[in-house]
Amino acid sequence: MIGEILDIVFITGLIGAAMRMATPIIFATLGEIINERAGVLNLGIEGIMLMGAMTGFLVSINTGLLWIGVLAAALVGMILSLLMAFLAVYLGLSQHVSGLGITLFSTGLAMYIYRIHFGSPLVPPIVEPFTQVEIPLLSKIPIIGPSLFDQYVLTYIALLLIPIIAIILYKTHIGLKIRTVGENPLTADTVGVNVYLTRTLSLVAGGALIGIGGSFLTLAHQNMFLIDVIGGRGWVSIALVIFGNWDPFKGALGAFIFGFLDGLQLRLQGLGIKIPFHIFLMVPYLMTIIALVGVSRKATVPASLLKPYRREEKGG
Amino acid sequence: MDERGEEMTGFRIVKRKPLPGWARLVIPFIAIIFTLVLSAIPILVAGGKLWKSYYFLFYGALGTRYNFLETFVKASPLIFTGLGVAFAFRAKFWNIGAEGQLLAGALTATWIGISFAGVPKILLLPVIITCGFLAGGIWASIPATLKTKLKVDDVVSTLLLNYVMIHIMGSLLFGPLQQPGSTWPRSSEIVEAAKYPMLLARSRFHLGIPLAFFTVATIWFVNEKIVFGYQSKAVGVNIKAAHFGGINTTAVILRTAIISGGLAGLAGVGELCAIQYRLIMDISPGYGYSGIVIAMLGNLHPLGVLFSALFFSVIIVGAQTMSRMTGVPYYIAEVIQGMALMVMLVFLLLTEYKIKVIRK
User: Fold this and answer.
1) 0.95 surpassed by complex ipTM
2) Do A278 and B174 touch (CB under 8 A)?
3) pTM here?
C-alpha cells in the first residue's frame, strides 16, 4: 500500500485534487477576510455559499451558460450581504446572531427555490459542468504540471485573487480604509471615511466571492445541487481566516491544506481500505480545530471585529 | 435601500427610555405576526393561494387531535435545544453546537438501548436519560475548555464539532453500531425497556413532552433562584466584572456549557427513544440549529423558549399539510424560521433603541 501512495500518478492526482477541493474555500476565505478586516464577522457565509451553489446551478441549467451562473451566484452573494449589512452595520445588531439568521434563512430559501423550480424528481437534474483547461507548456512539467496547470478556470482565478486581494488590502487607499474601519472606526470617521458605507461595500465584495465559491461546488466540483453540498465549508473558511491571521496568503495556505486533506481522504477511500469512510471525512474538520488550537492564543484579531459602530447623537 | 442617500437624509439609532414590561412581552408576538405576513412573499412566489396556505398551515398543526398532539411531539426536541442554546447564550458562550450535542445524546442512548437487554424499564430509562445528558454535556465541554484555556473561538469550534460528531456517528453506523446484516447506515432497534412510554392513546405523545415542560420549569428555577444561575448570567453580562466580583468564570462557563449541551443531548435521547427507536443518519432535521432561532425568539427566557418552540412546531407540522394541499414546498418552514430570527432581532432592537430620521 505504501508503494501505491508514493506512486507518482497518485501524488500528481492528489495535488490536483487538493487544488480543486481548495478552490471554493479559497474564494470563501478571501471573501470572509475582506468582511472581517472591515470589522464584520459574516456567519452568513455557509448560507451564502449554499445560495450561490443553488443560484449558479439554477441559472446555468436555464441559460446553458455556466459563466452567467457564476455571475448570478456572485450577485446573490452580494444581495444577501446587503441584508447582513443592514442588520449588523446599519442597525448594529449582534453580528453572531445576524449572520446565523442569514445562514438559516438562506439555507431554507435555497432548498425552497430549488423545489419550486425542479419539484422533487427521482433523479436530480444535472448540468454540463466546467471542464479543466490545460495551460500549454506549463502543464508538461512533471508532477506539478498536470496537477497545477490542468485546472478549472475558476481555480486559476482563485489563485490570482490571493495576491490581488493582498495588494488591495495592504497597498491601496481602499485597503487602508477597509482596515481602518475594522481597527478603529472612530478614527476613520473623524478623518471623513464613511464607516457604514465602507463596511457595507466590504461585505458586498466579500459576499460576491463567497457566492462564487459556492457555485464552484455545483458547476465544477459536482454537476448537481444537493442540500449538503457545502457541508460546513463556510464554517471551515471562518476557521481558516483565524488560522491565517486575517492574511490572504496564510488563509489561502490553510485552504490548500484543507483541500489536501480532503483530497487525501477521497483517495484513501478509493484504495479500498476497510475503514468506514466517515472517519476520513472527519479528518479535515478535526485538523481545522487542532489548527485553531495552535494559533488562537497569538491571533491578532481586527480590533473592532464584532463591535457595531454607532455615531454619537450630536455628530455628523 | 439607497446606501448613498444615507449621509444626506440618514437615520440615527438612539437609546430610548426602557419600555414597560408588558411591551416586552407583546413584542415577540408582534414579531411572529409580522413574520407570518412576510411569509406571504415566498408563498406567492411558489404559486400558493394565500388564504388557503395559511389555513392549512394552522389546520395541519392544530386542526385534528392527532396533529394537535403531533405539534407537541415536534415541540419536545425544540424545547430542549432551545433551552440549551438559551442557557449558553445567556452566559455569552456561543454554543452553535446543539446539533452535535443532540447527536451525542442520541448515540449514547442507542448504545445503552441496544446493549442492556433484560434491565427493567424503571431502571434503564433513568440511566439512558442521565447518560444522554452527560454525553451532550461532555461534548459541549470541549469547546468550552478550548475557549477558556486556549482562547479558541467558541462559535467556530462548536460549529466544526457538529461535523466531527456527524462523522463519528457515520463511522459507528457503518461500523460497530450497524445493524447486523443491514447495508444501510442504521443501528439495531433499542430494547422495549429503553423506549419512552406513550402517554396518550392513538398518538405519539410520549414521556419526553412532560419532561420538556418540567425542564423549562427547572431551568427557570436555576436562572432565578440558584446562585449558579446568577453567576452564569453575570459572566454573560460582563465577564471582567464577574471575575473581579470573585466568580470563577472558567468554572462557570464550563458548567454552563455542560448544562447547555446536556439539554441538547436530551433532545437526542427523546428522538431516539420515543420516535425512531434506532439510530439513523438523519435522526435530526436540524433541531440543533432551530434551537438557536427559538432561543433568540424566546429572548433567552425559559418561558419564551417554550412558547417559541411551540410556535415553530406549529410551523413545522403545519407546513407538511400545507405542502400536501397547496404544493408550496415543505421548506417554507425553514424559510419562515430564518425570517423569524431576523424580524425578532430588529424588533428587539426597537425595544431598546429608536430610529430617528435626520434630514439636512
Assistant:
1) no
2) yes
3) 0.92
